[in-house]
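As a warm-up, study this chain.
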Amino acid sequence: MHTGNVTTPFGRRPVTLALVRRQQAVAELKAGKTADKWKVKRDASAAMQQLGLQSNSLAVLDALLSFHPDNELREDGQLIVYPSNIQLSLRANGMPGSTLRRHLALLVEAGLIVRKDSANGKRYARKDDAGDVESAFGFDLSPLLARSEELAIMAQEVIAARAALRKAKEDLTICRRDVRKLISAAMEEGAEGDWYAVEAVYVGMIGRLPRVATIEVVASILEEMRLLREEILNRLETQDKSDYSSTNAAQDERHIHNSNPESPTESEPRSEEELGAKSNEDSRPRSEPLKVFPLGTVLKACPQIVDYGPGGNVTTWRDLMSAGVVVRSMMGISPSAYQDACGVMGPENAAVTVACMLERANMINSAGGYLRDLTSRAERGEFSLGPMIMALLKANADLGRKVG
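Now compare it with the structure written out below.
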């Protein structure tokens, strides 16, 4: 039978008010209360982080419970076990004495056991003439019985939190897959919009996800990822509607024109002024599109860009463009500057330009300003990637000869 007396520990171990309160709570056990000791231990194991315990603490608790002869902890039963440290160590998988004492202290501090020390600190039981235990000194398991409901609730909360975290991670994985594939489809099919900026936002979200994430972090990123997915779908839906309207308008216009084949507006301008205006418009200088160099040539001239590709490798133009987004962010180039470059040069050449800039990063003071200048020159037809590629190929060849 448990004791309602408040006891103090033997030797130099101090007593705390928390320890006194726990012993008083044990004294208030309901009559006839019982609990399965192994279920209580499983609940304590599930809530070990909340209790401030470690895996070795649970091994010691398991060993202590093994010295209790019954599977049930009963209010009217003997709840004090008194094994020696050697016996405990053997049942705790040969745990060293110093480690054993540390984890016994953790169990006491967590309020799962109470020390009931004898006058000399020894653990033993005094029996009556009938052989029944009259008094015992050792470790009182009454707190486990007293807190059985509390531990069960804590375990349920932990299990629920784990399930919520697992579901949030699954939802985030699915949402990430959706966003990644939607961005890739938009890029590959030439959908209108700054998809590299959208991709940069996506990469930034993933970069904030730690290796071991809490439910709060996962839930926050999941909410942002869902908003991004919704934004992408809205953009694509708006563009689909716009394309559909443009197609219908073109069909209607052709129908109107074909219904009046003798109209002079289709075949020739109405006046000399219109003819001159059209001629002047056609004669205005236009910038030639930048030449797209072979990927192998680009990688030979700009080998550093390979490290920033997916998995540290670049095998396709898509890999190069993904690496370009990463390098753009690393070099401090704003999304708008990169977007302008993509619009003027084309996404492939914009990525090649950034790759070339990476090779000469130590010579560029403001990467964003430099890219904007190259974009303006390209728009005027005054910039070509050829000299940059050739210069880097020559420089790398010269360096190879020196090393060799």
